[in-house]
Design goal:
Helix 1 crosses helix 11, helix 6 packs parallel to helix 8 and helix 6 packs across helix 9. This protein has two domains: 124 residues, 3-Layer(aba) Sandwich (Rossmann fold); 175 residues, Dihydrodipicolinate Reductase, domain 2. It has 315 residues and is of the alpha/beta class. The protein contains eleven helices and 13 strands. It is globular, with a radius of gyration of 20 Å. The chain has a seven-stranded mixed sheet.
């Protein structure tokens, strides 16, 4: 039986990425609306209620409105906005994050797709908090750089405007200086941390790809774990996970630099533990595509799980 899929917001960056991954999949039928129909509330409501599974690629308020229009109890929903990532009744759509994550998503009717920054951060921190290597009340910091596509249409237009002011032509810049980045609530809740991490995001002059880093003073942790202890916890957490790979200590020992575009145009994520055992320090790094595992790839992975299809189909 063919599953009917409706992408609400299919013309946006994430929506286009998802649609591309669903093309040529015979077991799926994507419902399309014309430009006029997308602006017609009745037509949208019919599409939302006539689908087997809806993917919302909308601003937060519009996503909440779309959910309110769904009165068919059989419709499953994946929300790619940040509107429901810590909302009651919604399942967090990061299948690899918890041992039973796949089963939770499979049983859910409402799934919130993780944010790109949160995906990298949680992949690095959640297993360590769960294992007791990082206490829940530890002052965790995180930083990184993302391709400018992560900022959506406005940032894409800004970076690609040939007439833009000189300040937009810099190689990279930091942002989120109010310390109120929209991913912080999910980074805190789903990591199990008692306090929000001190988050320092940056954006670079490249379209897609990102690095998320969590530096750890191992000497300050209660058990004073070694870099190999940290690596073992991450490797154990993601063993047999097709889309999350942890580099071996042997691999990381010969890496002298890491490119933010290393996982661009993929749906997977690579994790690294760089350590100095004598100094009691480690730099944990997640490399992913902000539009792949950080957005569209994750949404398709969740769709596959919810529909009972092979998890990596189309990825």
């Amino acid at each position: 039986m063919t599953a009917r899929i409706f992408i609400d917001g299919a013309a946006g960056t994430t929506g286009l990425e998802i649609r591309q991954r669903l093309e040529n999949r015979g077991e799926l039928s994507v419902i399309s609306l014309s430009d006029a129909e997308r602006k017609d509330a009745a037509a949208r409501a019919r599409a939302l209620n006539g689908a087997d599974l809806v993917i919302l690629c909308l601003p937060d308020d519009a996503a909440r409105e779309a959910v309110s229009l769904i009165d068919n109890p059989d419709v499953q929903v994946i929300d790619a906005s940040s509107a429901h990532r810590v909302a009651p009744g919604w399942t967090y759509g990061f299948a690899e994050l918890e041992p039973d994550g796949h089963e939770r998503i499979k049983a859910a009717r409402r799934v919130s797709n993780p944010g790109c920054w949160a995906t990298g951060f949680l992949a690095l921190t959640r297993p360590l908090v769960r294992a007791g290597l990082v206490p829940a009340d530890f002052p965790v910091t995180a930083n990184g750089v993302s391709g400018y596509s992560g900022g959506g249409r406005s940032m894409i237009a800004e970076f690609e405007d040939p007439k833009a002011p000189d300040y937009t032509q810099t190689v990279s810049r930091i942002y989120g200086l109010s310390l109120k980045h929209k991913h912080i609530p999910e980074m805190t809740r789903h990591s199990g941390l008692a306090h929000p991490p001190l988050f320092e995001p940056g954006v670079g002059r490249f379209y897609r790809g990102m690095l998320v880093e969590v530096p750890l003073p191992l000497w300050a942790l209660p058990g004073k774990p070694s870099p190999r202890d940290i690596h073992a916890a991450l490797a154990n957490a993601y063993r047999d996970r097709a889309l999350v790979k942890v580099a071996t200590p042997e691999d990381t020992s010969v890496i002298t630099t890491l490119d933010a575009e290393t996982m661009a145009n993929t749906n997977a994520m690579a994790l690294y533990v760089f350590g100095n055992e004598a100094a009691g320090q480690a730099r944990l790094v997640a490399a992913l595509d902000n539009l792949g595992k950080g957005a569209g790839g994750a949404a398709v992975q969740n769709l596959n799980i919810m529909l009972g299809l092979p998890e990596t189909q189309g990825l």
